[in-house]
Amino acid sequence: MDPALRSDRLLVRDWTVDDAEEAFAIYGSAEIAKWLAPAMQQVPDPIAMRSVLEAWIEDQPNLIPPSGHWALVRRADEVVVGGLALRLLPPHEEDVEIAWQIRPDEWGRGYATEGCRLLMRWAFTQDIDELFAVARTNNTRAIATARHIGMEWVGETTKYYGLRLQVFRIRPADLDSVPS
Ligand SMILES: CC(C)(COP(=O)(O)OP(=O)(O)OC[C@H]1O[C@@H](n2cnc3c(N)ncnc32)[C@H](O)[C@@H]1OP(=O)(O)O)[C@@H](O)C(=O)NCCC(=O)NCCS
């Protein structure tokens, strides 16, 4: 993504392989991984994290926008506080999912909410008219974030990953009713 997306506190930018140590604080965390399986497994070490980042970086130019993976960076100290992704949900690959992950020691500061709003505003310039998020019923923090970013609950399904998931949706007009 060029240029990167900016809010007062945050930057949404492309991953680089040099982010591996900081990305590992996110995707190596069991507290995060338990909510991401089966879409993504816990990353075992920083070397494996580097390989994951290499794959994401290599894939990115071949994906149809707005799909991709991005780093969420705190502008004040350039620490990678989280990761954001847009991807087609299996099995039909029609619905675009927004996914967010914040390193556990940075929870409770509103970074997921702020980063998702930045990314959604950009996504809606890329020829899509709705975005979805899915969360397990007991993933209360993720469900709270979906509400904070202006998503509405549309139901429960097992169609995406064979898991019972709560489904949230947002359209461009809903975004306009939420402060940026
Ligand atoms: C889901 C997840 C990103 C939520 O993290 P989070 O920090 O709780 O979420 P937000 O960034 O939206 O922060 C909201 C909290 O910050 C608080 N906050 C503090 N300062 C804030 C600010 N300036 N602006 C907004 N909120 C602020 C809010 O009051 C809220 O607090 P509360 O939890 O006590 O109500 C995190 O739990 C996570 O990474 N989980 C694992 C991955 C996952 O499940 N992802 C979702 C599915 S892909």
CATH class: Alpha Beta
Measured as a percent range, the helix fraction is: 25-40%
> Can you list the ligands bound to this structure?
coenzyme A
Overall pLDDT confidence? 94
Q: What is the strand arrangement across the widest sheet?
A: 1-2-3-4-5
What is the domain total for the residues? 1
Please summarize the sheet with the most strands: 5 strands, antiparallel
Number of E-state strands: 8
What is the terminal-to-terminal distance? 19 Å
Stretches with pLDDT under 50, minimum 5 residues: none
If you consult CATH, what is the topology?
Answer: Aminopeptidase
Tell me the CATH architecture.
Answer: 3-Layer(aba) Sandwich
Percent of residues in beta strands: 25-35%
Radius of gyration, CA atoms, in whole angstroms: 15 Å
Name the helix and strand elements from N-terminus to C-terminus, one letter apiece: EEHHHEEEHEHEEH
CATH H-level homologous superfamily name: Gcn5-related N-acetyltransferase (GNAT)
The coarse overall form would be: globular
Structural class: alpha+beta
